[in-house]
Write a structure and sequence with these properties.
- The chain has two helices and eight strands, in the order βαββββαβββ.
- By secondary structure, the chain is an alpha+beta fold.
- The protein has a six-stranded antiparallel β-sheet, with helices on one face. A two-stranded antiparallel sheet has the order 7-8.
- The two termini are 23 Å apart.
């Protein structure tokens, strides 16, 4: 079973469509970010979009995928999620949240709000 980290503007990542990060905004940001590189595609024909990769501090490579108005981070890494992806979340004026609802911040991990 995998565990994902999510970048979302919503209070809870599963509500991302209510407070969207537009696909065009994400693509523009990701293409300008030197730490991200396009690697593969998701979808078919005109609906396809690039999958971006990031190499974490521990050498692990993870994928960042725009999905339903938020960004899903998939892959295994051993470092702190905020140190790895906090700047991306802040740049996008968004939250960094785990599957369990915990929020990763500069001050530490906050428990789920529900």
């Amino acid at each position: 079973m995998g565990y994902e980290i999510h970048i979302s503007r919503a209070e809870e990542y599963h509500d991302s469509e209510e407070h969207p990060i537009a696909l065009e905004e994400w693509l523009s940001y990701a293409e300008r970010n030197p730490g991200l590189r396009a690697h593969g595609w998701l979808g078919w024909n005109e609906d396809r979009q690039p999958i971006f990769e990031n190499t974490c501090a521990d050498g692990s490579v993870v994928s960042l995928i725009w999905f339903e108005s938020g960004i899903n981070i998939k892959g295994h890494f051993d470092s702190d999620p905020y140190r790895e992806f906090g700047a991306i979340a802040e740049d996008l004026r968004a939250n960094l949240q785990g599957d369990g609802g915990e929020r990763y911040t500069a001050g530490g991990v906050l428990p789920p709000t529900r």
